[in-house]
């Protein structure tokens, strides 16, 4: 692993002075005492912490609504969202681990679990909404999670092999010159971009009737395809040692870890809880009307 100090990077071949754009990139993404600067860490921690606070503030009412409707699908995704959000918050808080001696293994494991939880959500949402119907039942939830688990399990296994078997520093941002790292991430993002691109291709083709008519889902796919394409471009640039590629990749990572989970909540869960609010209000109104609260004696 490379260590950066000032405007120099220490590699196996010795100290190399960073100049030009690379000098700006190194100053942006690292310091003498930590891997990243104050603004980088704030951009990660603040939105993640605020999202946890938001979830906690609405947790009691949301749990009541989930219990009222007994939707196993929504219960599963809500619980998984909490799990991923807490892991992601821990990952954001512990950024210093990636350049703290003796913490590399702990950082790699935390990064693996945090990114895998978010990837599981990302894949399962697509797998779930591509189904012809999604009745609220345990079989549908189990089938969706099984498919997602297979993909995420294979992804996790390959990352473990590359990291601990071949020493590829997948989660150490100061490693700009490691071609193996950027090759792995380029392939990873290429597969995701291909999956999102295929869905969009079918949606805008004459075969669109084979896909479920859910506009919100396709807006989500468009956003994720564009985001993945940007990260893919950044990995390609970083693979040829372009400083802008590292800067763009780090920016994309910050945006993903700070904004993806809130975006997922707004896109797929917020309407469920809002709809339940309306249903409960209607139920309360019906009960009060039956009890005669709205009867008026005009005589």
TrEMBL record:
It is found in: Membrane. Keywords: Membrane, Receptor, Transmembrane, Transmembrane helix. GO terms for biological process: G protein-coupled receptor signaling pathway. One of its GO terms (molecular function) is G protein-coupled receptor activity. It holds the Pfam family Tmemb_40. Its main location: membrane. GO terms for cellular component: plasma membrane. PANTHER family: TRANSMEMBRANE PROTEIN ADIPOCYTE-ASSOCIATED 1. Belongs to the UPF0359 family. This is Protein CANDIDATE G-PROTEIN COUPLED RECEPTOR 2. The lineage of its organism: Eukaryota, Viridiplantae, Streptophyta, Embryophyta, Tracheophyta.
């Amino acid at each position: 692993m490379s260590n950066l100090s000032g405007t120099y990077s220490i590699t196996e071949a010795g100290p190399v002075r960073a100049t030009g754009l690379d000098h700006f990139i190194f100053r942006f993404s690292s310091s003498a005492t930590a891997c990243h600067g104050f603004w980088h860490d704030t951009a990660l921690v603040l939105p993640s912490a605020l999202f946890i606070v938001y979830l906690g503030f609405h947790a009691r009412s949301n749990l009541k609504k989930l219990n009222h409707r007994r939707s196993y699908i929504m219960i599963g995704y809500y619980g998984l969202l909490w799990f991923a959000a807490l892991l992601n918050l821990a990952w954001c808080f512990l950024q210093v681990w990636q350049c703290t001696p003796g913490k590399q293994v702990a950082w790699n494991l935390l990064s693996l679990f945090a990114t895998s939880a978010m990837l599981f959500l990302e894949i399962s949402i697509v797998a779930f909404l591509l189904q012809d119907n999604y009745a609220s039942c345990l079989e549908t939830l189990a089938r969706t999670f099984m498919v997602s688990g297979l993909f995420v399990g294979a992804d996790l296994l390959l990352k473990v092999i590359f990291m601990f078997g071949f020493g590829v520093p997948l989660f150490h941002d100061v490693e700009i010159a490691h071609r193996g790292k950027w090759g792995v991430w380029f392939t990873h993002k290429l597969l995701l971009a291909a999956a999102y691109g295929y869905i969009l291709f079918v949606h805008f083709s004459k075969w669109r009737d084979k896909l479920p008519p859910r506009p919100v889902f396709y807006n989500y796919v468009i956003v994720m395809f564009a985001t993945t394409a940007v990260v893919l471009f950044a990995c390609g640039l970083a693979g040829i040692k372009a400083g802008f590629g590292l800067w763009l990749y780090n920016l994309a990572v910050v945006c993903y870890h700070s904004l993806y989970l809130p975006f997922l909540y707004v896109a797929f869960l917020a309407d469920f809880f809002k709809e339940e609010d309306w249903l409960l209000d209607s139920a309360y109104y019906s009960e009060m009307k039956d009890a005669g609260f709205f009867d008026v004696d005009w005589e």
